[in-house]
Amino acid sequence: MLSATLCLAVPSAHAEDGYELWLRYKPIEASRADEYRAHTAELVAPALTPTQRVTREELQRGLQGLSGHVPRASERIASEGAIVVGTPASSRTIADFRQDLSGLGREGYIIRGIHSRGHAATMIAANEDIGALYGAFHFLRLLQTRQSLRDLDIREAPKVKLRVLDHWDNLDRSVERGYAGASIWDWHKLPGWRDPRYTDYARANASIGINGTVLNNVNSNALILTPMYLEKVKALADVFRPWGIRVYLSAHFSAPTEIGGLKTADPLDPEVRKWWKEKAAEIYRYVPDFGGFLVKANSEGQPGPQDYGRTHADGANMLADALAPHGGVVMWRAFVYSHEQPDDRAKQAYDEFVPLDGKFRDNVIVQVKNGAIDFQPREPFHPLFGVMAKTPLMMEFQITKEYLGFATHLAYLGPLYEETLKSDTWAKGRGSTVAKVIDGSLHAHKLTGMAGVANIGVDRNWSGSHFDQANWYVFGRMAWNPEASSQRIANDWVRMTFSNDPAVVEPVVDMMMASREAVVDYMTPLGLHHLMGRGHHYGPGPWVEGGPRADWTSVYYHRADRNGIGFDRSVTGSNAVAQYSPPVAAEFGDVKRVPEKCLLWFHHVPWNYPTRSGRPLWDELVHRYTHGVDEVKRMRGTWAGLEGRVDPERFEQIAAFLSIQQKEAQWWRDASIAYWQSINGLPLPAGYEQPAQSLEFYKALEFPHAPGNG
Ligand code: GCV
Prior knowledge:
Distance between the termini: 33 Å
Radius of gyration: 26 Å
Number of strands: 16
CATH class of the largest domain: Alpha Beta
Strand content: 5-15%
CATH topology of the largest domain: TIM Barrel
CATH superfamily of the largest domain: Glycosidases
Helix content: 25-40%
Shape: globular
Number of domains: 4
Bound molecules: 4-O-methyl-alpha-D-glucopyranuronic acid
Largest sheet: 8 strands, parallel, barrel
Mean pLDDT: 96
Structural class: alpha/beta
């Protein structure tokens, strides 16, 4: 096993290149250093198990970096200012203090100020090692964000059980919808070479509570299930284990025919069932704590049970039966749409899954995207969250920004996550929020989960841009607590990643919090959606039409003509609103009550429809597009004002990326307005600039090598 010591030895080749993420542990100001040193003079932490060892090493690394001294290692509290870490089983001191650890589960912890033999100390106590590790990271965060260490009394446990990153990484190291370089999994060199980056990946994840990783793309390749690759999977699982991270694999439903020599993959066929049972047993011989399978079936050309006239439940349950003896789970995706041309793609997951509610095994969780289309800059919450009471549902968010400007646009996704999680499904009356569905409390489910499609690659800064690290960070924190505030998390992230100087924290948090709404405005204002370039999804493409499927075009979604614009999903249209609980359906289905931010998602209205600002719809659209661009200009100005307060390396790259964002925001605005004008023939409202180029110019742009396109 690679030790964390080796990871410490990874040379920091470039100053402030983003590699250290939010775990920079830079020296604290002299004014606070004495206070913190007094609270961290001694470390009483066992190191008998791998998790205990990495916990102790992380505390040493963090405290050394932050306060410039390594605390004395000690068996028992011997002086003032000790930190005592462990479980009642691993630490006599913790056992002696008899803290109430009930209700914390395996992963929870307390951090509490105590007194022992006249000495003040801080206790980080948990039921199991992994809880103590999470507590140690929390403690370090207190220092990193300059919190007081006096009279601590923190009690934390995750509200969600499976907190998972989904890597859409292929075996050739390309990453579907990845904008941070190649896959970090160097399959060819594994298992012989375990890149130290794997350890740092695990550290970063553990620091925010992520406890699972699906290594390969949901558009999967059955080869991952062959011995050659299982050896490699085992090597990664061994690196991750001390950090509490389990490995999962995306399973290709037709693997029995592709690598098993069978003639069918029918989930009810006894030979197929036997094959999967044996395959599961084989995987557990390599990885005894293997988490289970993620499956994309009968979606976008992937094989699945419907190929054999079976249901999603038949397919999921067959895999669940194979994993059950070993404690594994199936995460079965609800991102499906059928081969027939639908009247409304937004309705399909509901149509296919609601009849199956209650028919899944206990170790199946259905993974549902936040909205019913596909990770758009804004979508109303997915109707499935309000209707599958008998089935555990897992949230799937995208961390990578397929539809929000790839790596160069600053778009902090915390507010997007929060907006979805706070949405009220009304499944059991007011207050039935998506967060309560996800954490299992609404329907008393024990199996709970949240997945994020990772934005990680081999780029030195991991995520393709410095600010995209914040999206990985906020995903982990909100998976731990789906009711957390994205603004507070942004605040922590800025303090840990850039600076605790209020002159940096306040403007940067402000930029972050406004950034997603700016993207919505310059790309898809007022509920518009799915208007991007075909295939690669880079840049505007509201004119996209034709091709193999109507629901892969833009015109299908905006339905603009001379008279109006928007997708009528009310009772006069596709009636998708009927998939929501009656109070929600009544709100979304009424053009006068629908939140304006979702107006054109649910309604087709005339260009002169009066919006709440008093402006007619067309003027309001132009206003929003322009406002989105103005917001980016404002962010650029704010950032420029931080010169000298942020290290030059990161300052310059972020400044450059913001200028790319401004250019592309303008492109989105101008191309969209030019296209809408070609349809509605309307002049721009007074005071707004004409698009810089003709519509033909924008339509002729091609990007055959845009990143992330499979
Ligand atoms: C992994 C969208 C993306 C695809 C992705 C798919 C999915 O369609 O563009 O790249 O495939 O969602 O979530 O399965």
